[in-house]
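Q: Here's a chain of 253 amino acids. Please give me its 3D structure as C-alpha cells.
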Amino acid sequence: MGRKSLSSTQTVTIPSAEHREEPKPTPEKIVDRKIIIYKTLIDPTVIKLATEKIKDRLFLKFGFLKPNPDQIQMVSFEKDYEGFVVIDGKYTIDYYRRRIYTIRVDEKAQEVILFKQTFKPEVSNELPSKVIRIEGEERLIHQAKAYMVLSADGKEVSPKRIPSAPSEEQTKKLLAEIESTKKLDILPNEEVNIARSRIVKRPQEIKRIVHELFEVTDRAVIYTPIYRVRFQNLKTSEMKTVKFDGVTAKLLP
C-alpha cells in the first residue's frame, strides 16, 4: 500500500464547544477543620504595666498635647479571644494540549515524510521558506497554591497577625466558653470555597486530562488570647479601648 498523502493544512478537528461533553467536576481531597486554642503566655500584670505607660497617649489633643495621667482611669480589663481560620490548599492538573508545529523545509522540497505520513510543503506568509505543519500533543503540569488566614468576620488578613504559641489542652468547657461569645462569622466550608475559587482554574487549551486534584492539607480554627483594656478621660468622659496580644504582649491595631 502507498503512503497516505496529507496537506499541511489537514489537521484533526477539535470538537466545537456545543459538541463537547460537559467537563467533569474537579476531584477533591479535603481534611476536616481542627480547633486550636493558644495558651496565654503573658501575665495580666505585665499588660497592666504596659497600659499605664501608654494611657496618656490615647487621648492626645491636637495630635500632640497629652492630658494629665491622673485624669485617665482604667474602667475595664478583660481577657478575650480572637478567632481566625487558616487553610492551606493546592491545585494540580496534569494534562495534554493540542499543538501545531511549524517546520521549515528546503525550498525545493516537494514532499516530506514523517511518521510514515507524507506532507506537502507550502509557502509560509510568516517565514521566508516553505513549511510543513504537524499536529501533536504536549503534556504539561500546572500547580497553584493558596495559604490564607481569615479573620472572624471572613476577611483575609496577613499570616503575621497570628503569633506562634503552644496550644492549650483543649477541654469542652474552655471551647464552649470561647464559642459562646466569639462565634465565627464564617460558614463551615467558606474558606474551602474561597481557596477553590482562587486556584482551581483549568487551562483553556486542555485536550485531555491525565490527573487533577484540589487538595486541602491543613485547615484550622485558631483562637488567640488577647487582653482588652478600656480607659476613660475623667475630664472629657471620652472612652478608648486598646488590645494587647496575650502571647507576645504586642499592642494590636
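Q: Can you summarize the key feature?
A: The radius of gyration is 32 Å.
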